[in-house]
Amino acid sequence: MDADALSEFNRRDWRTDADIDPLRIAMIGLGWWTRDEAIPAVADGEFCETTVAVSGDREKAEAVADDADAAAGLTYEEFHDGAATDEYDAVYVATPNATHLDFVASAAEFGKAVLCEKPMEASADRARRMVEACEDADVPLMIAYRMQTDPAVRRARELVQGGDVGDPVLAHGVMAQPLLEMIPDPDQWRLDPDLAGPGASVTDLGVYPLNTARFVLDADPEAVSAFARSEADAFDDVPDEAATFQIRFDDGTLAACAASQHAHRSSHFTVVGTEGRVTLEPAFFESAGRQFALDVDGIGASVDYEQVDQMREEFDYFGHQVRTGRDIYPDGRHGLVDVETIEAIYESAETGSAVSIGSADDSG
Length: 364
Hints:
Layout (H helix, E strand, L loop, with lengths): L2 H4 L16 E6 L3 H13 L3 E8 L2 H10 L4 E4 H5 L9 E4 L6 H10 L3 E4 L7 H14 L3 E3 L7 H11 L6 E11 H4 L10 H4 L4 H17 L3 E9 L12 E8 L4 E7 L1 E12 L2 E5 L11 E5 L2 E5 L6 H15 L7 H20 L3 E2 L8
Parallel strand pairs: 1-2, 1-4, 2-3, 4-5, 5-6, 7-10
Antiparallel strand pairs: 7-11, 8-9, 8-15, 9-10, 11-12, 12-13, 13-14
Helix pairs in contact: 2-11, 5-6, 6-12, 7-10, 10-12
């Protein structure tokens, strides 16, 4: 067993000793996630600070800016017009999926680094245009897969890549939540295909096991097959109140994943190899204490470790990498593969056939 992978479990393997100034962030989209998770995480972290708040509502922007001790509160129109560009170095985009491209394109035009929430856009075409906008402007683009900066997931990747569970054979991931209990509004954007993209459960939740499997396995999907159903009235406009999908990865590993926005809160992730398995349960919810278990040759071990704030880890990683000029992963090309895969999942669920994934240059 790779003892290094389990020693200093919470180590930030990406961190250098560089003395850097905090990266100044413009928070774009001031919903509950940004206000309750992102801004507090930045305040608690080392390498970023909130200096601008951007909303479609001026009063909200100014109120959040005041609460965060930020330099400016802007409307969306003012942001696109280039207001207060001297007050921030990078943007965090947490608006509805189908609006990401416009904000990222403006940020790229202003020469600002970008941290964009997942999925990066509502379609592969728009995601590709986002990548091209940032590449043309030579600005960093990171997709906000917070699981990838969680030490437990990074240790799982090290163990799998180190061969500790043998050759990977199977992966399994589940994420479910009662969306309408959390946000009791059937008209919310996550249930609106014009804003969320082709569905609700796979786009918002299924992307977690999909992307975490890609990261831990260091592999990309080649083909998918899927089933989905929607029965509750609130899910009339989307095909996936609940969905399951299977993935064949380019390393030969097979994965089975499930997601639902209308089920008991649950999350699980495991990779099974020829000699053992590694498991995270619960896996994907920010506020849930993750349990890490490793089973090799019939000998099981659970690792007790100090839980971390995933959002703090994500922002600190982003700030550190931008300030030190180091490569960022997951980058836009990496995120594009997920959007292509999501589109293939919905196509498979509709047609009843397996669908191959379009090629995308994953340069992460």
